[in-house]
Design brief:
single chain; mainly alpha
């Protein structure tokens, strides 16, 4: 739920970076780490409150839908106004929503309809956090140090996905008391641990807000760039830019299809699998997410080596990796032991980390700088826009059949999509060193 990194090159850290950068990255890392607690605790809370995979899918859909719808609007707002101001307001809103969620769980007053309202608010605020977090870094760091600053940020973000879920799973499992039981409210198992996880996330947002208040954005950066004629026109320019670039358009549509079949099983299937089948309970769910994060970290570290080896056939490499990844997801439906699942997700994460770094770098080389923010927002919109549908469909499938069927069906469909896409030259022929496409006048 935090800012995406626009440059993942593995440059060596500089000897000195501006104090504003260190305040930003310190607060961001604390907040990113806190986010992992909610990412583990929220699905677990829905399952313990309702016992329904369908309810889990709809809660995740309600949170992801406004995040996707307002993503492009958030990017245009950031281009028109101060990313610093937008980021402070958005993170403050998230702190309030997560704090309310923690309070309701602590007091035993949590009910499903409250979860829907709070998930809606969290999703709306996060839609503005993504583009604001991406845009503020170039305002605080000199161009010569930007690659190194992004490398540090990417490393810490990946570290948070490795450490955070494991800590969250331990917190929920360790403090497994049911908590206070309010009159008329459902008694929630693991309520004390869940409330503790949400409280940690709320406090992490407060730490991030403090760091943002301390930051001083240079005056020259506050009004950098020419003003845009309007939000809708700005969005339209970004869409036309991507649509006019055939390889970029094909790639983004492919990413949308892949995220649909991966997002459903991982968002809905993993917590259900941990709850119904695995031996570690909430700790198993956290461990699985940490294994994926650790794999992504390893894959991103060696992305430079992988790009040198496979850069001339980057598109084909991605398609082959996704075809194999689909088989891994299908096999995951038969996992009964946590350690087996950890090994599988770690392996898949390595592949995903390489793909993420290589393809984002390809986009950066291809897109003009003045269109970068809107292009990345469109990419995130495509990715996040299918997440609500994937989560809802995953919940419906699990309501009607087993978790094994969900993983097997999604994995085989992903493999089929990757194999069919090999016949599309626009994707198959992508090279790491592709020239830039013409900009839209």
């Amino acid at each position: 739920m935090q800012e995406q990194i626009s440059d993942t090159a593995g440059a060596a850290p500089p000897t000195r970076l501006d104090r504003n950068f260190w305040w930003l990255i310190s607060g961001s890392f604390v907040s990113m780490l806190g986010d992992q607690f909610t990412l583990v605790a929220l699905p677990w809370l829905v399952l313990k409150l309702t016992g329904s995979a369908l309810a889990l899918g709809t809660v995740l859909m309600v949170m992801a839908l406004p995040r996707a719808i307002f993503m492009l609007v958030g990017g245009a707002f950031v281009d028109r106004f101060s990313p610093h101001r937008v980021l402070v307001i958005a993170r403050s809103a998230n702190a309030v929503f997560i704090g309310l969620l923690a309070a309701f769980v602590w007091t035993g007053g949590i009910q499903l309809w409250w979860l829907y309202l709070l998930a809606l608010g969290i999703g709306f605020a996060t839609a503005f956090v993504y583009p604001a977090g991406s845009a503020i870094l170039p305002q605080l760091v000199a161009p010569a140090k930007l690659a190194a600053a992004n490398s540090i940020t990417m490393g810490l973000r990946t570290l948070s996905t490795f450490v955070g879920p494991a800590l969250a799973g331990v917190v929920v499992a360790l403090f497994a008391a049911p908590g206070i039981h309010a009159p008329g409210a459902a008694r929630v198992p693991d309520a004390t641990g869940l409330a503790s996880a949400f409280t940690i996330d709320a406090l992490s947002f407060l730490a991030s807000i403090v760091s943002l208040v301390i930051i001083r954005v240079p005056k020259a950066a506050k009004h950098a760039g020419k003003p845009l004629a309007g939000v809708l026109r700005s969005i339209g320019e970004g869409v036309r830019q991507v649509w006019g670039d055939f390889p970029l358009r094909a790639f983004i549509l492919y990413i949308g299809a892949v995220s649909f079949f991966v997002g459903g099983p991982l968002q809905v299937g993993l917590p259900v699998l941990a709850d119904q089948r695995l031996d570690w309970g909430a700790a198993a769910y956290g461990a699985l997410m940490s294994a994926s994060g650790a794999g992504i970290f390893v894959g991103s570290v060696f992305a430079g080596v992988g790009t040198r080896l496979f850069g001339k056939r980057l598109g084909l490499t991605v398609l082959v990796a996704d075809a194999i990844g689909g088989l891994i997801i299908a096999a995951f439906g038969f996992v009964h032991h946590t350690m087996v699942g950890i090994v599988m997700l770690f392996t898949w994460g390595i592949v995903g980390g390489f793909i993420q770094v290589a393809l984002i770098s390809w986009i950066q080389r291809r897109v003009a700088p003045e269109m970068m923010g809107r292009t990345m927002s469109l990419l995130m919109f495509t990715f996040l826009g299918v997440a609500p549908l994937a989560a809802a469909l995953g919940g419906v499938v699990l309501h009607a059949t087993s978790v094994t069927t969900l993983f097997v069906g999604a994995g085989l469909l992903l493999t089929a999509i990757a194999l069919v896409s090999m016949f599309n030259p626009a994707i198959r022929s992508i090279k790491a060193a592709d020239a830039k496409a013409p900009t839209v006048e």
